Amino acid sequence: MASEPLKIGLFVGREWSWPPAFLDEVNRRTAETGVVAEYVRIGGTMINEPVDYRVIVDRISHEVPYYRLFLKHAALQGVKVVNDPFMWTADDKFFGAALAERVGIAQPRTVALPNKEYVPGIVHNESLRNLRYPIEWEGLVNAVGGFPCILKDAHGGGWKEVYVIKDMDDLWDKYNQSGLLSMILQEYIKWDDYARCMGLGQSDVRVMRYNPNARYYSPEHGFSQDLYERLYNDTLTICRTFGYDMNTCEFAIKDGVPYAIDFMNPAPDMDVNSLGRGHFEWMVVHMADMTIRLARSNEGTRDRYTWGELVKARSEKAV
Question: Among 57, 250, 258, 276, who pairs with 262 as Cys (CB 3.0-4.6 Å)?
């Protein structure tokens, strides 16, 4: 009797071009690999309910909280989730910048700011006794190199809540609109060139020249060999450091130095209309390669965590 195929599940939102192309690419190889891919269907999940996928690719749980709950549950059951929902829940651009700098990635100078507003129940003169006041705005601006500088949401994405700040009045105006968001202030890198690099499986990288103003990917990167290799290796370092198997890293290149200014994008753009046909086809084929390899392996997201080791050991003991 033939064994059941290994299953890859896919969580997606409104995107339309990459998902069916990816499913077709995986499923046309099924006879050779023993792996199939399909959209995940869920509607209420019991604790420790079995999950019959070896791999789940997540491209939407940052917008659908129930999906994130399910993906953590799937990781507990031994599934390899792309990307790790525990890391994705915990990351932010301030910690990310600090960690990236510690592993050798060039970073703009960055400062975390106190929140403008707080949840109900916070009494300013009682709940915030650890907070220095007034804020030393000029000192913070000078710490990142002065104006212009960048103000952005530490947990944001998709270029939302990102501002180029011209002067102190501009800073106060944008900061006063930030509400409950946690904002960071960052050095403005006046770049000569720009790259967006896709990292997959912590082993493959697509280096792409990118114009963030026009949102345009050049068909060929055109970088020097030395710069290409640094972009490639820095992207691998970032993906391995944060444990992401699917991630884009953006680099503002100034005087030949690539500064990683936006590098935690674990649901990256894979649309054919923005990427162009060449980059798109690379994403389809290499995502299929990666997920098939993971499906046929024994890797699980829980393997990174102490609790995962304890659960795995107890499960093996019970067999």
Answer: 250
- Quick one: how far is CA 262 from the chain centroid? 9
For 166-218, how does the pLDDT look when each residue is reduced to its tens digit (9 = 90+)?
999 999 999 999 999 999 999 999 999 999 999 999 999 999 999 999 999 99
Which residues 6+ apart lie within 8 Å of 78 measured at CB? 300, 302, 312
Q: Is the pTM of this model over 0.85?
A: yes
pLDDT single digits (tens) 249-261: 999 999 999 999 9
Distances in whole angstroms, Cα of residue 262 to Cα of each of 45, 57, 162: 34, 22, 11
Which residue intervals of the chain are DSSP H helices? 18-27, 30-33, 65-76, 85-90, 93-102, 124-127, 137-143, 168-176, 225-242, 272-275, 277-295, 306-318
d(Cα 197, Cα 200) in Å, to the nearest integer? 10
d(CA 248, CA 167): 31
Residue 150: closest CA among 168, 137, 162: 162
Residue type, 206: R
Whose structure tokens read 């080791």? 309
Contact 53, 81 (CB under 8 A): no
Whether omega for the bond prior to residue 83 falls within 30 degrees of 0, making it cis, is yes
Six token digits for residue 65: 């909280």
Query: What CA–CA distance (Å, rounded) separates 122 from 255?
Result: 46
Among candidates 188, 189, 207, 187, which has minimal Cα distance to 199?
Answer: 207
